[in-house]
Amino acid sequence: GDGRVTSSGANIGFDLAVAALPLSLNTVALSYPGLPLRGEYSGPMRLQGDVTDFSATTDLTGAAGRLQLEGQFDAAAPGYRAFARGSVAGLDLHAALAIAGAPSTNLNGRFTTALEFDSLANMLGDAQLRIDRSLVDGVRVYDAQAALHFAGGAMQVDTLRVESASGTLTAHGGLGLAAGRTDSQIGRAHV
């Protein structure tokens, strides 16, 4: 690949077009311990801007699946931003996430985010998820969609619908994300 990196005090600017051969997210997580993704991924990456405001376009493939992503980000503390859209194919959450108990999956779908946050409890914005034919812990999922809104220490589930071989689940309501913040969900399952 090629590119340019410039330094202006504490801010680092970049204009990079590179090929990850591979990119180790385990190594990246040493500098950004909050990054939940793990594994090695290969593919083209385009990054432009600086750490406080940059665009990213990538198409990465690894043992945990494929991720295509395009968006605008702020990766500098104290506040982070992710205005993005993308898709996943064959994504195995158990292999991709550094979270104990993550299920084995084969996910195919799309997502969009418009989020700003310094922690989960202070997240603001929206996220939409759409899952096409997939497997979650051995259960066939035919279709799933969720529309989520984050504000005031809570996640509002505007729409949640999952159609699977085990049945159909619909839900709406809220989940408290901050300590002491309570909310409720209304769900319906048809088996």
Provide structural commentary.
This protein is mainly beta and 191 residues long. Helix content is 6%, strand content 67%. The protein has two helices and 13 strands. It has helices spanning 25-31, 93-96; strands at residues 2-8, 11-24, 40-50, 53-62, 65-74, 80-91, 105-117, 124-131, 134-136, 139-151, 154-164, 167-176, 185-190. Strands 1, 2, 3, 4, 5, 6, 7, 8, 9, 10, 11, 12 and 13 form a 13-stranded antiparallel β-sheet that branches. A hairpin with a 2-residue loop joins strand 11 and strand 12 (167-176). The protein is globular, with a radius of gyration of 18 Å.
Short description:
This protein is mostly beta strands.
Q: Which secondary structure elements does this structure contain, and how are they paired or packed?
A:
Layout: E1 2-8, E2 11-24, H1 25-31, E3 40-50, E4 53-62, E5 65-74, E6 80-91, H2 93-96, E7 105-117, E8 124-131, E9 134-136, E10 139-151, E11 154-164, E12 167-176, E13 185-190
Antiparallel strand pairs: 1-2, 2-3, 3-4, 4-5, 5-6, 6-7, 7-8, 7-9, 8-10, 9-10, 10-11, 11-12, 12-13
What descriptors fit this protein?
13-stranded antiparallel β-sheet; 2 helices; mainly beta
Q: Could you tell me the strand content as a percent range?
A: over 45%
Radius of gyration: 18 Å
| Average pLDDT taken over every residue | 94
**Share of helix, binned:** under 10%
Count the strands?
13
Molecular shape: globular
Total count of helical runs of at least 4 residues: 2
Distance between the termini: 52 Å
Give the low-confidence spans: none
* Order of helical and strand elements: EEHEEEEHEEEEEEE
Structural class: mainly beta
Largest sheet: 13 strands, antiparallel
